[in-house]
Design a protein that fits this description.
heterodimer, A: alpha+beta, ten-stranded mixed β-sheet, 13% strand, B: disordered N terminus
Chain lengths: 431, 317
């Protein structure tokens, strides 16, 4: 079983580093810009062999004359917030890195990010620009330029257990009404028809409801990028989830489920259907994984179809021994990252058409469905606002979001009161 | 032994006799020099302590007076963070739960610790092994303990709900029901801390002179009377110290609750420590997080002072 990593919110642990920023900053410029090598920091995006392969790719990079070579370093998720924040503050940051999904937007606000516009131009000349799946590069575009280059997608897709649905005599749903009917059928055989979890550190607590809201044409932000929590589509989506709670289609214990608990419910065949992340089958493992299939996106009551997608990305920093060197290495990295999918080392969806068309993906029907059916209708946290920014970075992992996820699963609240609480909390947060 | 005792008794007298012979001004100068030497000797430690403790404390104080986020220092806002915190109903909810949680777990751990310490005092076969086994909850890393408790309680298929189901008590959702979640985190905290209480009380029991019990038995005292009138008064000092220490442990304990329930469901198990973490590390409101932490520390100082005064009044032994 490959336990794959989707992404992590950047905010959480960075706070610890914040206390040390002034002291570190006082130490003066670190070795980043003075160093003759490009420091590349990468995360454990998969099993340990991921980082072994990643290091080989970095080591095999042969810079052209005058450009620096690359030093590869693994940064653990448990301390990555501190590592990056303190490094940026002290000027010892990497020149290039992967990291949290919204990390680049946070550091761009701090004026620490080197925008990737020149690299984008180089990719256009090189032809690789056209290899990116439609819309993927746009997710990194801000008013000031491209903050990073996407490299894999963390999408929320509809999964079901084929044998459990067959056992319940239910058909694979295509819309919310059919989802409700399938849930009722599954309930009769003691299986829950809408997977979720809102326990400690489980970001699906709020991502699943967000996925339902954007899937219904709603979302937390309007077209102008302003907060718009209490729109009719959101109320409708949350009301639907609360209906599932009331009908007993959602596991009443799920309010306390961690990611591990939630996955274990799939493994023990207690969950038969749900909106989950790309790597669900990999994480469930065992023989149950063979029964798990991705269905086509569900249509909402108004016929809308959309999927919540977060783009994991690679960013460049201003503090570098050579900006040209950073760009040259990143371009080389992008050209070689197909290896991760070839060897089955990452669980996210690829952003390059060439990888999506490769045998590594085409032999996995669930991935084909995800790329063909979900990627084209992918919508970010920004929802109708299209462009992700610091507002989305702030809400990701915020306690108001976790409480929102828990409140939905409580029978004592209404959809409107739950969304009103969220709206008030986010308004205060973003003011 | 006698010689050592005699010489040590004589030494001050000799010194005092010699001192009385030297002029007062010379004594004063000598004392001044001694003070200077002592000050110089202490100075590095004081400087180290200041660097280690004072700088973070001052920096945190500054943060609590600013509207900073994780990556920006923010503007000076005076006491606004403190007023925001004390006007927030969530803060008082967390305070109430923290107080109840602390009282229940300190008392629970003490009762269990006392019972086990008394039991291990008897001639139980293999009590040494029991003693080691009973220390396990305290020595196992809390991350591992929390994971184990989670797998015991979290889902309806977990061990404990299944066992209760088997005896006709339904399948209680220990971590999903707000009331049961409070009980679950309390039980977990007691399970983690009773070994500490047991150790403290065992040490205190060891120091009680057995002849006191023998005399009481001769006088016809029952076991209960011995416990009430001999054991409890003679371990009172240790008891107060252990209460004080565990109160500090529990109020400051963030990991136990965060790992097991994350403060949920719907804030039902949110302590002041968890609230401070959320403010600083999830909501990026570092100033408010530090303000909550300061208020928590202030309360702990008050409680500690009260308990410490009580401890000082209790006679040793």
């Amino acid at each position: 079983m490959t336990t794959t990593i989707s992404r992590r919110n950047f905010g959480g642990l960075a706070a610890l580093a914040a206390t040390g920023i002034p002291a570190l900053a006082a130490c003066g410029s670190g070795s980043g810009a003075g160093s003759k090598t490009i420091k590349f920091w990468d995360m454990p995006w998969g099993p340990p062999s991921y980082n072994v392969v990643a290091k080989k790719i970095a080591d095999s990079y042969a810079p052209t004359a005058g450009l620096p070579s690359v030093g590869y370093q693994v940064i653990q998720w448990s301390t990555f917030g501190q590592a990056f924040a303190s490094a940026v503050a002290s000027g010892t940051n990497p020149a290039v890195s992967t990291g949290g999904g919204f990390q680049a937007f946070q550091f761009a606000q701090q004026n620490a990010i080197a925008y990737a516009d020149n690299l984008i131009d180089a990719m256009k000349h090189d032809g690789i620009y056209d290899d990116f799946l439609p819309g993927t590069l746009d997710g990194m575009k801000t008013d000031n330029g491209y903050v990073a280059i996407p490299w894999q997608l963390d999408a929320h897709v509809w999964w079901y257990n084929k044998s459990l649905l067959a056992q319940a005599g239910a058909t694979v749903p295509t819309n919310w009404d059919e989802l409700l009917a399938a849930g009722k059928a599954l309930k009769k055989i003691g299986v829950y028809g809408f997977s979720t979890g809102a326990g400690s550190g489980n970001s699906l607590a709020y991502e699943t409801p967000m996925s339902m809201m954007v899937g219904n044409g709603g979302g937390l932000f309007d077209a102008g990028g302003s907060l718009d929590v209490l729109n009719a589509r959101n109320i409708e989506a949350i009301s639907f989830i609360k209906q599932l709670v009331g009908e007993g289609i959602i596991d009443p214990a799920s309010v306390s489920y961690t990611n591990v608990n939630q996955t274990a419910q799939w493994t023990s065949k207690r969950y038969g259907l749900g909106n989950e992340q790309v790597a669900l089958a990999d994480n469930v493992g065992t023989t149950v994984a063979k029964d798990l299939a991705v269905m086509k996106p569900l249509a909402g009551p108004h016929g809308d179809k959309a999927a919540l997608v977060v783009e994991n990305n690679i960013m460049m920093y201003k503090h570098t021994p050579s900006q040209k060197g950073s760009e040259a290495f990143l371009l080389d990295w992008i050209k070689n990252m197909h290896t991760f999918w070839d060897k089955g080392l990452v669980g996210g969806l690829p952003v390059l058409k060439s990888i999506a068309r490769s045998a590594a993906i085409q032999t996995r029907p669930n991935y084909v469905t995800m790329i063909n059916e979900y990627q084209p209708i992918g919508i970010s946290y920004a929802a109708s606002g299209k462009t992700v920014g610091t507002a989305q970075a702030k809400i990701d992992g915020n306690s108001a979001m976790y409480q929102f996820g828990q409140a939905i699963l409580s029978k004592s609240t209404t959809a409107k009161s739950t969304l009103t609480s969220l709206s008030n909390a986010l308004t205060a947060l973003l003011k | 032994m006698v010689g050592i005792s005699a010489s040590s008794n004589q030494a001050p007298n000799v010194a005092s006799q010699e001192t009385s012979k030297v002029p007062a001004r010379r004594v004063k100068t000598h004392a001044k020099a001694t003070r200077r030497t002592l000050t110089l000797l202490v100075l590095p430690s004081v400087a180290a302590l200041l660097l280690i403790n004072a700088y973070p404390l001052i920096y945190a104080t500054v943060q609590s007076l600013h509207s900073g986020t994780l990556i920006n220092a923010g503007k000076f806002v005076g006491l606004s963070n403190y007023s925001t915190v004390v006007r927030d109903p969530a803060f008082w909810h967390a305070v109430r739960f923290t107080v109840a949680f602390t009282l229940a777990t300190v008392l629970g751990s003490w009762v269990i610790g006392l019972g086990l310490a008394l039991a291990l005092r008897t001639d139980l076969p293999g009590r040494g092994i029991f003693k080691v086994l009973l220390l396990l909850p305290w020595v196992v890393p809390v991350v591992i303990s929390a994971t184990s408790w989670n797998s015991l309680l979290a889902t309806p298929q977990s061990t404990l709900p299944r066992l209760l189901g088997a005896v006709g008590l339904g399948h209680p959702l220990f971590l999903a029901d707000p009331t049961l979640a409070k009980i679950a985190v309390g039980a977990f905290e007691v399970w983690l801390n009773f070994p500490f209480m047991m150790l403290m009380i065992s040490a205190a029991l060891e120091s009680i002179d057995k002849t006191i019990y023998e005399a009481a038995t001769v006088d016809g005292a029952t076991g209960w009377q011995e416990f009430i009138h001999i054991t409890l008064p003679l371990i009172a000092r240790s008891t107060y110290i252990s209460w004080l220490l565990m109160t500090i442990f529990v109020v400051n304990d963030f990991t136990t609750i965060f790992l097991l329930t994350g403060g949920g469901p719907v804030n039902s198990t949110t302590t002041v420590g968890v609230l401070a973490y959320r403010a600083a590390f999830e909501n990026f409101q570092v100033g408010q997080g530090v303000a909550i932490a300061f208020l928590m520390s202030l309360s702990l100082i008050v409680i500690s002072t009260i308990l410490y005064r009580r401890i000082r009044k209790v006679p040793i032994g």
